[in-house]
Amino acid sequence: MKPVRLRPLAKRDLKEAVRWYRDRDPELANRFLDEVYKVLALLERFPETGGMAFGIDDPEIRQLPVDNFPYQIVFKRLPHRTSILAIAHERKKPGYWNE
To answer: What are phi and psi of 65, to 5 degrees?
Structure first.
């Protein structure tokens, strides 16, 4: 197992998304968090998973969808951990987290 670490931008993305969902429906915010945590747990167990990130040539930068929500978890596979670069809404500019 490789530990998963969220970079500051990913933490901010997560806080903003949870706040947005919580303002509309607290239960929906909880379901969103549950789905994000499921993906993070999957990455910890299977760091080689995920598809190529749209528009990115680095094969170590991958993404996984958050089930039932319009978000992708963008991550970079490193030798001793998995770094979460962003929790990106699908309508955000692709690669905004790489600027």
So the answer is: -75, 155
